[in-house]
Design a protein that fits this description.
Length: about 60
Amino acid sequence: MCPNCEDFARTVLLLGQLALYADMADADLDFVEAVSPSLAVSLPEPPHGYDLDGGPASAGDR
């Protein structure tokens, strides 16, 4: 896997895990609010050829 692909995939995974954590009943929402903007900003550009439309539908698309 190319280095940019690995960074992109890792950051997307972390964002997904943070979203799942935020939905937990005992989640520390102050932590989520503090970390999520920085994590989202650190998301690198998708690697060349990455299919942005190939992922799951977002909540707004349903």
